[in-house]
């Protein structure tokens, strides 16, 4: 952080606001990951970090390097594009795997599939106390 | 003036990202089932990538960008492979 004294003030404030917003949203997403009760609620929470959090920090980085080097530095767009494309794919794969595991075991309550318990595990689902949610 | 603003905001943002990594690690360690652990690992990867990017802003060099890109690639590959493993019991069939 030396040699930044000729860095313009408006850019510093903008970069700082974007950085703080991005990291705060990422922290909020992971707090949701800790505090939500079931897996199907938890799978939503980290996407806050991968969309808004990563977007804020990547735009801050683009702005910082563009102002610092006095030219357009847009290589962070690669990460933005990659994260935007891959996060829905991986989370869809993961949610499908979780639904498959829960349906074959018949234990957890899947949203939208409450009456769809396989007969082989009816006893296991009867023994489970009812979910208040 | 602007160096002070940037230093403080980058430091605060790094601590917030470290706290985010701690929350994700809590879910990796204590997650009740395997899919919770994989989800926590994905969040941990994303938070680590953003932390590397803030290190790049702090040091003013673009070297950290490549590390962040590699971490993003590894996050995709590892989460996709683990989800495939949870689904099928094997990764490459």
Map the helices and strands:
The complex is a heterodimer of chains A (133) and B (93).
Chain A: H1 9-35, H2 39-42, H3 47-69, H4 76-105, H5 122-127
Chain B: H1 2-30, H2 34-59, H3 63-88
Helix pairs in contact in B: 1-2, 2-3
Written description of the protein model:
The complex is a heterodimer of chains A (133) and B (93). Chain A is mostly helical and 133 residues long. Chain A has one domain (9-111, 120-127). Chain A has helices spanning 9-35, 39-42, 47-69, 76-105, 122-127. The longest helix of chain A is centred in the C-terminal third of the chain and has 30 residues, at 76-105. Chain A starts with 8 loop residues before the first helix and ends in a 6-residue tail after the last helix. Chain B has 93 residues and is an all-alpha fold. Chain B has one domain (2-88): Helix Hairpins. In chain B, 87% of the residues lie in helices and 0% in strands. Chain B has helices at 2-30, 34-59, 63-88. The model of chain B has no long low-confidence stretch (mean pLDDT 88).
List keywords for this structure.
heterodimer; A: 133 residues; mainly alpha; 5 helices; 68% helix; disordered C terminus; B: 93 residues; Helix Hairpins; 3 helices; 87% helix; 0% strand; elongated
Most extensive contact:
A-B, 60 and 55 residues
Global Rg of chain B: 16 Å
Are there runs of chain B of 5+ residues with pLDDT below 50, and where? Answer: none
Number of domains of chain B: 1
Q: Whole-number radius of gyration of chain A?
A: 22 Å
Q: Give the low-confidence spans of chain A.
A: 122-133
CATH class of chain B: Mainly Alpha
Number of helices of chain B: 3
Largest sheet of chain B: none
Question: How does the helix and strand content of chain B classify structurally?
Answer: mainly alpha
Mean pLDDT metric of chain B = 88
The CATH architecture designation of chain B is Orthogonal Bundle
């Amino acid at each position: 952080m030396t040699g930044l004294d000729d860095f313009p003030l408006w850019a510093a404030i903008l970069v700082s606001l974007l950085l703080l917003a991005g990291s705060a949203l990422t922290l909020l997403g992971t707090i949701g990951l800790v505090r939500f009760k079931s897996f199907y609620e938890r799978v939503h929470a980290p996407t806050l970090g991968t969309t808004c959090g990563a977007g804020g920090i990547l735009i801050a980085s683009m702005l910082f390097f563009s102002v610092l080097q006095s030219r357009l530095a847009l290589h962070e767009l690669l990460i933005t594009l990659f994260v935007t494309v891959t996060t829905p794919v991986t989370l869809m794969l993961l949610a499908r795997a979780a639904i498959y595991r829960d349906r074959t075991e018949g234990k957890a309550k899947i949203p939208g599939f409450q009456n769809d318990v396989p007969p082989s595990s009816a006893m296991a689902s009867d023994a489970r106390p009812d979910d208040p949610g | 003036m602007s160096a002070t603003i940037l230093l403080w905001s980058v430091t605060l943002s790094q601590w917030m990202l470290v706290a985010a990594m701690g929350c994700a690690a809590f879910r990796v360690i204590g997650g009740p089932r395997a899919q919770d652990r994989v989800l926590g690992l994905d969040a941990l990867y994303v938070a680590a990538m953003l932390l590397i990017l803030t290190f790049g802003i702090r040091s003013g060099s673009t070297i950290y960008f490549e590390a962040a890109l590699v971490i993003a690639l590894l996050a995709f590959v590892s989460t996709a492979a683990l989800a495939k493993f949870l689904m099928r019991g094997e990764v490459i069939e």
